[in-house]
Amino acid sequence: MPRFRRSPVKRHRPSADLMFQSLAACDGARFVGVILTGMGNDGAKGLLKLRQKGVLMISQDQSTLLICGLPGAAADMGAVEQLLSLGRIVGRILKLCQC
Fold this sequence. Notes:
With 99 residues, the chain is of the alpha/beta class. The chain has helices at 16-24, 44-52, 69-77, 86-97; strands spanning 32-35, 56-60, 82-84.
């Protein structure tokens, strides 16, 4: 059973980085990560860990973002594989889910 941190991680509680790093530790699991608008960079390092494990990471592109903080930080780190407009993200996920 995972233990939950009670103290903030880099000022954040809950911490997106901690959540994404926990997902990256799940061997054999299949994920698709989607990053939407967000402030700051909490989550970018965790998203990079997921990407390094082979998870497809999709980010909302800058033309449709309200705030570029997290998507921009993740893209700058190399954690994002595909940049799509908000309207195209759902179609991409549905296509990936088809067997």
